[in-house]
Amino acid sequence: MRKVKLVSVFVLLALLLGGGVGAAMAQEPQPPDAPRPTRPTVTRSYKLEWVTMETEDGEKQVPVTVNRLEAVQTVNVPKPACHKGDTAAPNAMVGSVTVTLWRAMSWYANGNPNDPDTLWTVWTEARTSTDQCVDQVNVFAEHQYKSGSVWVDFWPGDEKHSSDSDPCEDDSGKAVSGKGFYIAGTTHRSHGIHVVYIDGQRYEWDETGPGPRTVP
Description:
By secondary structure, the protein is mainly beta. It has two domains: 1-30; 34-215. Helix content is 12%, strand content 56%. It has one helix at residues 2-27; strands at 41-55, 58-80, 93-109, 119-130, 136-147, 150-161, 175-176, 180-183, 186-198, 201-208, 213-215. The strands form two sheets. Strands 1, 2, 3, 4, 7 and 8 form a six-stranded antiparallel beta sheet that branches. Strand 1 and strand 2 form a beta hairpin.
């Protein structure tokens, strides 16, 4: 009889403690999910640029046609009313911050573009910006190419963030991945991780595109 009572006491104690821990965890504020961005708007452009290229006479500046695909997405992040002087109810949202996620993939031929043996230089750029002041803005740009059925990250990637010395910086600056040389017919895509901090809350968007695109 004593064993039964003793076991019952331990079970009751475990239930009480478990309920207390569960209740405490349930009361902890959970970070909000980042709102989904719009579908990418993709545009293509061409531009004549001078680049340094290795020739039979050594390194020279030569004109090349740089092809570019750009993808732009926007996302509206609700802004909580948590500042001094706000009269809104607790947890109320006051307006929103529009975040722009920009990525681009560029490429040009290192020689005759009609020669199948010509190598192509391809790279990715990315940027995060907002329409108003936020705590901080970050971006990570990475270029990816396809090897068989697997996407491979070209190293190095590049990270940029708003200046800590400016409390009202709303642009990450442009991050530019490493530039690689690829044979014609390789498939590529851009990858960007966009981050903003708004009123102490971190929001992140891990996005791919433009691409996949087979170069040229």
